[in-house]
Amino acid sequence: MVGPQAEREAVRVAREESRLSERRACRLIGMNRGSWRYQRKERHEAALRARLRELAGERPRFGYRRLHRLLRREKEYGVVKWMVNHKRVYRLYREEGVAMNLRKGKRFRAKTRMPLVLPTRANQMWTMDFTRDSLASGRKFRTLNLMDGYTREALWIEI
């Protein structure tokens, strides 16, 4: 597969060397005549880049989507100044390196750990825990166990 630029070049060479008409050269290459005649619009890329950098400097916590909205809202003489789509703003935003830094999550301070006090007699501390198992048929079940911390005796099992 060949890109449009290479096709345009092939049509130009075919027209110059073989002295073919535009229509015949385009048909020979398999290119649409509208694509051959297309002239790229002049973009005000430098001014847009400068304005994007300026807005990103004023509002460092704004991402490209919010900056795109700000650009679209700007008016000059009652006319929208920047008619740009979000994809172009995103490309320039990445190229300019004004992407906002990701915030780091809060780090919780670790409390000093205290070892658990072991019970010295029965019924002083009870523990609860879920366990699961499966029957011979493959059916699974869960149990809630209430146990005494000292004797390790199961006081109650709820299925």
Structure in words:
This protein has 159 residues and is an alpha+beta fold. It folds into 3 domains: 4-37; 45-96; 126-158, no CATH class. It is 40% helix and 17% strand. The chain contains 6 helices and 5 strands, in the order H-H-H-H-H-E-E-H-E-E-E. The longest helix has 15 residues, at 4-18. The two termini are 65 Å apart.
List keywords for this structure.
three-stranded antiparallel β-sheet; two-stranded antiparallel sheet; 40% helix; 159 residues; 3 domains; elongated; single chain; 6 helices; 17% strand; alpha+beta
Main sheet specs = 3 strands, antiparallel
Low-confidence stretches: none
- Given helix and strand content, the structural type is alpha+beta
**What is the CA-atom radius of gyration, in angstroms?**
36 Å
Mean pLDDT over the residues: 87
The tally of helices reads 6
The beta-strand count equals 5
- The helix-strand sequence is HHHHHEEHEEE
Strand content: 15-25%
What is the topology, as strand order, of the major beta sheet?
3-4-5
Give a brief outline of the structure.
The chain is α+β, with helices and mostly antiparallel strands.
